Amino acid sequence: DAIAAGDLEKLAVLGHGNGGTVYKVRHKSTSATYALKIIHSDADSTTRRRALSETSILRRTTDCPHVVRFHGSFEKPSGDVAILMEYMDGGTLETALAHGGTFSEERLAKVARDVLGGLAYLHARNIAHRDIKPANILVNSAGEVKIADFGVSKLMCRTLEACNSYVGTCAYMSPDRFDPEAYGGNYNGFAADIWSLGLTLFELYVGHFPFLQAGQRPDWATLMCAICFGDPPSLPESASTEFHSFVDCCLKKESGERWTAAQLLTHPFLCKCPETF
Ligand code: ATP
Ligand code: MG
User: Fold this and answer.
1) Is 137 a pocket residue for ligand 1 (Cβ < 6 Å)?
2) 95 CA: nearest ligand 1 atom
3) ipTM of this complex
4) Where do the annotations place ATP binding (predicted)?
5) CA 243 → CA 75, 109, 219, 254, 271, distances in Å?
6) Chunked in runs of 10, what are the mean pLDDT values of the chain (277 residues)?
7) Which residue CA neighbors atom 27 of ligand 1 most closely?
8) What residues are annotated to the active site?
């Protein structure tokens, strides 16, 4: 049965984003817990457009175990748009890193396998996420890892689509996003997701954003130069050969050389993930 706004009771604020506020809510009659993202009616038109686009993408992905499950959406009389999703009780990988410290390779192999499962599903349906980063990957106490926040995702018309718009979180953007001409000719939204996944795993292993030193404040111009003109970052020596190789396959500057999600699902690094994790 469809859930209406009046059936839900707010319990807590889970997070704020550019888009709106996410609440932990309780369904009054079943006591089930959900996450409810509310985009206020006074939000700017871009934000409202993103909310509608996020809804239409989440609606198409409800049979993927690696995408946060969509349970419906409604527009309140006030004009607020609300998106009801499954509640992920472990929060984001960004907070897991901040509170629990860096991740072991076994844990990263599990994250990689689940996120790649989600990306392979999305890419096969022509959807590019375009904002893969630790803050947009959620975990729960059942050990599941899921992709969230489809606010800037895109249903691509063709496999390769030229794109000059800056969407997503700049730091995680691939060189081909900044300068499509210089890197393989065309900006490819699918390959860009793989770059962002490589940076995400790298960050969770070393504890800070790859192109910056620990504690260094991000300066946008320096960062963009490092991403476009520097060599891709490489992992410390403590990382295994398999992990080095996996990250290298994600962080190829030429988007055409980057492995696809389907190819990476066969990479030996994923064998480090214990089945029972
Ligand atoms: P931004 O664009 O700034 O990343 P946003 O407005 O698009 O943010 P989300 O990233 O979807 O919103 O959610 C914001 C925060 O709310 C997340 O970082 C997370 O902490 C929390 N959150 C979102 N969805 C859920 C969920 N299903 N379960 C638990 N927490 C969630
Ligand atoms: Mg977000």
Assistant:
1) no
2) 20
3) 0.94
4) 37
5) 45, 9, 28, 20, 11
6) 86 87 96 94 82 91 97 86 96 97 98 98 94 97 96 68 58 79 67 97 96 82 88 95 98 94 98 74
7) 87
8) 131
